[in-house]
Design brief:
Layout (H helix, E strand, L loop, with lengths): L16 H13 L2 E6 L5 E7 L22 E6 L4 E6 L3 E6 L3 E4 L2
Antiparallel strand pairs: 1-2, 1-5, 2-3, 3-4, 5-6
C-alpha cells in the first residue's frame, strides 16, 4: 500500500490544517474508527466514512448542505446509519486500513 501524502503521526496533529486534510481524505477512501471525547467528557467510538457509496441514497447530502466548520467534521456513522460530528481537537485515536492507527501518546 502506498504511503499517504501528509499522513499524521500523532492525534494532536489532526487539529492542524494538514491533519484536517488528512482525516477528510482518509474518510473519503475508507471506513475509519475514530475515538473522541464528547462534550460531556465521555469517550465515544465512531465507525464512520464520507464515501458516498456507503451512505444510503436518502441520507446523502443534497445541494450545499450545512456550512462546514473549521472546528468539527460531520461524518456518516455506518453502524447507526446517521450523520454525527466530532471536534478535531477531541480525537483520541484513529484506526484505519489493516490495523493501522494514530493515537495520543
Amino acid at each position: 500500500m502506498a504511503k499517504r501524502k501528509n499522513a499524521v503521526k500523532k492525534v494532536s496533529e489532526i487539529a492542524t490544517p494538514e491533519g484536517k486534510e488528512w482525516i477528510r481524505g482518509l474518510l473519503r477512501s475508507e471506513v475509519v474508527t475514530i475515538t473522541f471525547d464528547k462534550l460531556d467528557g465521555t469517550s465515544r467510538e465512531l465507525h464512520c466514512t464520507l464515501i458516498e457509496s456507503k451512505i444510503p441514497e436518502d441520507k446523502r447530502p443534497k445541494g450545499a448542505g450545512k456550512a462546514s466548520s473549521d472546528e468539527a467534521l460531520a461524518v456518516f456513522d455506518v453502524e447507526n446509519q446517521g450523520w454525527r460530528s466530532f471536534r478535531y481537537d477531541s480525537v483520541r485515536r484513529v484506526e484505519f486500513g489493516f490495523g493501522k492507527s494514530v493515537e495520543n501518546e
